Amino acid sequence: MEKIYSLKDPEILLHIVYRITDFKNNREDIIDDNNFLQLSSLKMKEGKTFRPHRHIVREGPRYTIAQESWVIVRGSVSVFYYDLDNSLIKEVVLNQGDCTITLDGGHTYKSLDKDTLVYEFKTGPYTGQENDKIFIDADCKSDYKDQAQGEAFTRWQEKYLLQQ
After folding, report:
1. First-to-last CA distance in the chain?
2. Which of 1, 59, 139, 164 is deepest in the core (most CB within 10 A)?
């Protein structure tokens, strides 16, 4: 597992790369409990089962951020990771079975193979693109934390991210 932290604020975990070769025995929680998106890996032996269950509605935090994960089903993609100030900080190639998680910062993907298949998971509810994302332009120098999200992001960060 590779964790990619902000170069601008090294305390903030932005992205995680989890490869199919990273699976361990049993269960591993990949994402810290303080994030909106939760992800675990499970390596199961034949016959492994779980007690039947359903999930309950519960009260949640007032402020949310769309956190996203991609699992490569077939093919490969280049992932470009961006820091809090929208600067490119890393490029990684993901192959079949690999997973990427973006908790903060920005990203984009480029398919490297014909007919690449990907599962995308993200926090919801989805209320439209204008409430979900900010596009990063080549000349974009704004500070994501302060200008783009403003006061709401700052309060969310103080309450959730700084507890890590």
Report:
1. 18
2. 1
Return the CATH number of the domain spanning residue range 2-46+62-127+134-163: 2.60.120
Cβ proximity of 112 and 132 under 8 Å: no
pLDDT tens digit string along 29-59? 999 888 888 999 999 988 999 898 888 888 8
What residue type is 66 in one-letter code?
A
Fill in the amino acid letter for 10.
Answer: P
For residue 22, which amino acid is it?
A: D
Closest CA to 114 of 76, 141, 88, 142: 76
- Predicted TM-score of the model (pTM): 0.78
Question: Residue 149 pLDDT > 50, yes or no?
Answer: no
Q: What would the pLDDT profile of 66-90 be if each residue is shown by its tens digit?
A: 899 999 999 999 999 999 988 999 9
Return the beta strands (E) in the chain as ranges.
Answer: 2-5, 13-18, 26-29, 40-43, 68-74, 76-82, 88-95, 99-102, 106-111, 117-122
